[in-house]
Amino acid sequence: MLTSIIVGLYVLALVFIFLYSLAQGHLLWHYLKKRRSLAVTPQVPPLHWPKVTVQLPIYNEKYVADRLLEAVSLLNYPEDRLEIQVLDDSDDETSDILAKKITSLSHLSIQHVRRENRDGYKAGALKHGLSLAKGDLIAVFDADFVPDPEFLLCTVPEFSNPKVGMVQTRWTHLNLKQSLLTRLQAFALDAHFIVEQVGRNTLGAFINFNGTGGIWRKQCIIDAGDWSDDTLTEDLDLSYRAQKAGWEFIYLPNVASPAELPPIMSALKSQQFRWTKGGAECAKKHLLSMWLRKDLPLMAKLHATAHLLNSTIFIAILMVSALSVPLWWMSLYGHFPEWLWKYGIVFMLGFFIIAGVYFVANTFELKGVGQKLSTFFYQLPLFLAVSMGMALHNSIAVWEGFTGQKSPFIRTPKFNAQSLLEIKKNRYLTLEIPLSTYAEGGFALVFLVLVGVSIWLGHWLFFPLHLLLCIGYFLVFIQSFHNTLD
């Protein structure tokens, strides 16, 4: 009975991963069909440029506040049609930095908006700002972004279609080469911004505003019920509400919005926790209603399911990882089901599909086959290892999201750092090490032992998986202490 339960759960997790990979493969197919026509002729500029409000939600961002305002001040747009809202919830010297910078930009229309409290966190700040905004269009940039001067000229013309409610641009990476960790983050994000967003937009499935680097029609936000803080991913939540209300979204992969990647593991973990938990909360909130709608095609519903449940992939990875231990033990004594070995090869197709998605996403700007292959085959194993190593941390977040456990909106520390010393001096770094980090260290030791025993016995059934898990958990464990404890 116990063997049947272990095998059943293991197969269930593999099936979930496989189905998710098929959805990714379908997006890749639509991206490849669309790729040649991505460099389209820009929209014709409007005869009368609409009023635009640029919202900058900020909370304790002393290292990047000045840089953000400087970049926004360079936006190429008629000054009499541009309003800038600095939505400042800070309780440290960031407010003084912002006030000084705003004074130096007196030729622009800039509102320094302060609230009495942080009710609703970022969603609350955006909602409050919207009630004061004069613009017909609302652009949003987080503090770690450096918007391109041509951003508004490239995006605003898309709203000539009255059905368009939001236009999202592609994130690019200011500090891509800062460390291995930033390279691996870019490796993951590029798959979303190059393949997934283009694929979904091409086949008419729901896409999402990514929280920043996008621009909304104000009426779309109002029609969708305004910003809400009942999930940690207010951007994904509003995106689904708006598209369910009939608004169309446009994704522009050729318009870049540069941003900073978290350079250390503790910052990345806080970001990942918010994204994965918020994704689960949005799945709980929207998934059933998507399937009950009769006006949506089946393919849109299937991709909405894959989209809303994409953070759940970490629970499946954790299950496969944990259950591989008793299965490895069973295989030593000849109790491993032969049918699972025989048909398990089918699940390898999912791996090749996912590899294809990341290959296309991360090599489309590289020249030459040699450069593409060397870059890809260096980063893919490390990316897979670290993703597996993050499975425990992210699974906890997903579980909390599905079970309704509430937690505050924890901002990701921003750095604007040029050196390791500057990173270490960041005052927003946390010194707290959660128990899950020590559990990650425990997993690393378990899989290290299994790798060693497998080599000693010449037993290779789970060797590649356990080696990746060992490397991944060790990297995540060690990096969790990096710049946190000296």
Textual characterization of the structure:
The protein is an alpha/beta fold and 486 residues long. The chain has 18 helices and 7 strands. Strands 3-2-1-4-6-5-7 form a 7-stranded mixed β-sheet, with helices on both faces. It is globular. The model has no long low-confidence stretch (mean pLDDT 92).
Shape: globular
User: What is the β-strand count?
Assistant: 7
Which second-level CATH architecture of the largest domain applies?
Answer: Alpha-Beta Complex
In whole angstroms, how far apart are the ends?
Answer: 48 Å
The largest sheet has its strands arranged as: 3-2-1-4-6-5-7
Q: Estimate percent helicity.
A: 55-70%
CATH class of the largest domain: Alpha Beta
Give the SSE order as H and E letters.
HEHEHEHEHEHEHHEHHHHHHHHHH
Specify the CATH homologous superfamily of the largest domain: Spore Coat Polysaccharide Biosynthesis Protein SpsA, Chain A
Structure annotation, total helices:
18
Q: Main sheet?
A: 7 strands, mixed
Question: What is the structural class?
Answer: alpha/beta
Task: Work out the count of structural domains.
Answer: 2
CATH fold type of the largest domain: Spore Coat Polysaccharide Biosynthesis Protein SpsA, Chain A
What's the average pLDDT?
92
Strand content: 5-15%
Q: What's the Cα radius of gyration? A: 23 Å
Q: List unreliable stretches of 5+ residues.
A: none
